[in-house]
Amino acid sequence: MRVREKGDRGVVQSVVLFLGVSVLSGALAAGLAIPFAGLAGFTTEKTSDTLQDLPQQFDEVPLKQKSTILAADGTVIATLAEQNRVPVKLKDVAPIMQKAIVAIEDDRFYEHGALDAKGTLRALLQNQSSGSVQQGGSSITQQYVKISLVEKAKTPAEVAAATADTYQRKVAELRYAVAVEKQYSKNEILEKYLNLANFGDGAWGIQAAAQHYFSVNASQLTLPQAAMLAGLVKNPTGYDPTNNAKRAKDRRDVVIRRMLELNVISVAQANSALKTPVIDPNKVRPNKLGCGNGPYPFYCEYVVAELEDNPAFGKTKTERANYIKTAGLTIRTSLDPKIQADAQRSIDTHSKPTDQAIAAITIVEPGTGLVKAMAQSRGYGSKRGQTAYNYNAPKTYPGGYGGFQNGSTMKAFTIAAAIQKGIPLNYKINSPSPLDMGGMKYSTCDGPRKIPDGYSPKNSTTNVADPTMIEAAQKSTNTYFLQLSLRVGLCPIAKLAGSLGMYNAQNLKPLEQVASMTLGVDYVTPLQLSNAYAAFAARGMYCTPWLITSVKDSANKSVSVPGANCKQVLAPEVADGVNAVLHQVMEPNGTGGKLKFGKSDLAGKTGTINDAKAVWYAGYSTKLAAAATVADASVPYTKLQNQTLNGKRINDPSGSGTAGPIWEAAMKAALQGYPTTRFVAPTDKTQRGDVKSLPFVNGMNPEDAANKLRQAGFEVAIASGTVNSEETAGTVAYTDPRQRDGAPAGSLVTIYVSNGSKQVKPGKPTTTQTVQPPGSPTTINPNCPPWNPKYPNCGGRGHR
């Protein structure tokens, strides 16, 4: 104990001697100017007491290391860093670099302890005589301590305290330096210093500096290169050769001459080095930090946003953001560079950055949720044809645009909910255009509602009068799906869509339940829609979008991050039914028929919103799913017609003709190399549905018929007006669905009242003579309709 106290007293005496010389000379010794008044009454004994109050051990500051984001194949997407630093061992630093930094900053580094009083006084006199700071006053150990304390500072006040020109700060710094000298060897201190020091222009640490200025590793540095870097640490901004090459050369030459003076190098070496250009601009490697400087900036920013939301990286978002930039993480993502290139090539082929309209597409993998690609027509930036928005992402972070209304792509969720309820694929609904729906009632999760008067939607395509679900999907028949959604109920559709990741991408709330929900509601993104459709491809297995597949720290240890998050949301049989319906959309009679390619089964759906302000195509195979959109993304939003896309005016915007080709080209290229795949055929029960027989009510009083249907377990509505029929005027002409087709229990049955216009006049025959095939029944059984596949053994003629 007495030996240590004696040593401490010696240090204290050195401090007081040094401080006294500094004050009496009235000069700055590398920032160590001490006001004379500050030393009044500051005795050796008081200094000793102050030192004894300081910690006896110096807690090493963790190096701020850059983090790297990688694609699925290991290629670099971006480098995140507060300080661009790559730590290296001293053995990996060229010996000439070690000699250069010691020569100019602390030439007696290996000879003295924490404080070099002799060297400090010599530097003081040298700097005073030259009129500028030529040599450092602090030892390398002291400089390391000072930089470390600044690195530890978390607030501006803490930074100010760590750099204040006060004797208290210098005394504390010295005491820490003493602790450092006890904890580490000289070589360890030099290594820490070289890795911690700022070398200007965004380069921190000797390895990053060597790579940045000279495109070499620290182990390969030459004499003139080492001298330039050694000179930088005194003033990283002032001596930055990329800003002021002359000033940098002057400073470098000071270092070379000092090395010659100390006999570290020969005269010949010095002369050769002095003649060498300070830097070769062609060798300077830009510090491309951040997502904006990477090849996939929008995808990268979405990844960073997800990292910053992960509690594993800190308690607050600020803490997490700092950790991500300084912890030296290696972040591997789901992005597939090949598929990303396919998607971007399709975007670039069908659109231009300067178009009025924007184009975007996301591709995901069914069954995993891996986001393989995100591409869009406008690049990253603030110039014309650029944007800071990711048009594929929800508004969960500042860069997420928040989507567009998705039009008839919503019909897929109505189809799924209908199949889930037991409605058959051949379910027919009379679907006129226009259809007066004013006054109709519909159910939501919050109770029944009524459609306002005057709502008369139209069909945008020509279809048969009574289409099946498949036929209606093929032609995207609006009035069919509006009626189907009312019969299914909007609550089941909303819940099913929500379970597949569909929500308002602007405000992150559930989709609104309005009568026109099946035609597109609220705002959704290509990411959401492609991922939801991927669940159909995966036979009902929904997986949340998965971008970050692994994270490892600087020690190559895994950091806990969410993995695949998959859940069976739909019964496989229901998804198979959806696939069967949407597969027909891509057959010759469907709106997506021209987009079919290859041998694998494909399914898809078009989407166009009101005034065609956005058009969509979403589709999938069992291997990949994608959603493409072309939309107006500039306020005030206007129709796409006459806007430019690919430099040309859009004449007739549609999901199949405008967004479809983007989807087709991207998916065709992306699926190359994948095996041929097929959808699982729907079961007989899925195709036929879970229907029960409808009682025969044709010709009955409408109210009596309604009661009979209610007693059978159906909801009933009586349509306004009358229809042409052979039944007596004022009686039931027919029901929708028809008695021959049956209907799922609890579904809505609409009664249509006859006007008697086709009623047979008296005196005319009411039946015609027919020849029955051998073995056919001669009687009519209204409860055994032959058209209903649920009753394959029935015969005879049914009724309308």
From TrEMBL:
One example GO MF annotation: carboxypeptidase activity
Key words of the record: Carboxypeptidase, Glycosyltransferase, Hydrolase, Multifunctional enzyme, Protease, Transferase
PASTA domain span: 688-755
Biased composition (Polar residues): 765-782
Keyword presence, Hydrolase: yes
Pfam families to which the protein is assigned, alphabetical: PASTA (PF03793), Transgly (PF00912), Transpeptidase (PF00905)
PROSITE patterns: PASTA
Record CDD domains: PASTA_pknB
Signal sequence segment: none
Keyword Transferase: yes
SUPFAM superfamilies (alphabetical): beta-lactamase/transpeptidase-like (SSF56601), Lysozyme-like (SSF53955)
Region (Disordered), start-end ranges: 757-800
Domain of life: Bacteria
UniProt-listed Gene3D superfamilies: 3.30.10.20, Biosynthetic peptidoglycan transglycosylase-like, DD-peptidase/beta-lactamase superfamily
InterPro entries in UniProt: Beta-lactam/transpept-like, Glyco_trans_51, Glycosyltr_51/Transpeptidase, Lysozyme-like_dom_sf, PASTA_dom, PBP_transglycosylase, PCN-bd_Tpept
Catalytic activity: [GlcNAc-(1->4)-Mur2Ac(oyl-L-Ala-gamma-D-Glu-L-Lys-D-Ala-D-Ala)](n)-di-trans,octa-cis-undecaprenyl diphosphate + beta-D-GlcNAc-(1->4)-Mur2Ac(oyl-L-Ala-gamma-D-Glu-L-Lys-D-Ala-D-Ala)-di-trans,octa-cis-undecaprenyl diphosphate = [GlcNAc-(1->4)-Mur2Ac(oyl-L-Ala-gamma-D-Glu-L-Lys-D-Ala-D-Ala)](n+1)-di-trans,octa-cis-undecaprenyl diphosphate + di-trans,octa-cis-undecaprenyl diphosphate + H(+); Preferential cleavage: (Ac)2-L-Lys-D-Ala-|-D-Ala. Also transpeptidation of peptidyl-alanyl moieties that are N-acyl substituents of D-alanine
Protein name: Membrane peptidoglycan carboxypeptidase
Biological source species: Kribbella pratensis
